[in-house]
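Z., the sequence and structure:
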Amino acid sequence: MKASSLVLSFLGPSGGGKGTQARRLVEKFGFAYIGSGDLLRQRAKKIDFTGRKVKECLKEGRLVSSLVMADLWEEEMERVKNFSPFPGLIIDGSPRAPFEVRLIDSGLGWYDWMDQYRVVYFNVDYGESKKRVLAKEGRKRKDDTLAALNQKWTWFRKQTLPVIEDYRRRGLLIEIDGRPPIEDVYRALVKALKLE
């Protein structure tokens, strides 16, 4: 499968390196990028009920409604589908819950991407996640607090780990050890995706 035809979801806990590795692939191979966290932070700036609620959820580390997420994904997927030639796509941070798997599957089917789809799981433990998130000197977001991190880990264990196991059963999962240095993780990722 050519790099330009891949559609990838990057999953893992906070501090797992999803965004860092996504940026590397975007720069090197030209993938289009949909960052769920970026979309939510942008939506939180809009002054309406949903914007205020999204902002509150982000601050507290709670999940935003899947309905809101689906609306944000659809707009971005449509934008990417119209690229010519198709550059490949990374969906960073989604799907996070079993219901969202069905939404993503539906979107992938609609845009004729299901056959090209793989899910990359960056596996790090809580200790490593905590160390990385709290060490982001000068780069911290408002939701990079210990309280928000603990809440995110609660729903990661409850909601996202079953999603990861579902993709493993379906033969779509690529698991990457997210603990080594960035360069080592990147090399393992490129090798697993057969990009070089």
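The chain has one domain: 3-193. The two ends are 11 Å apart (CA to CA).

Let me know what you think.
H.
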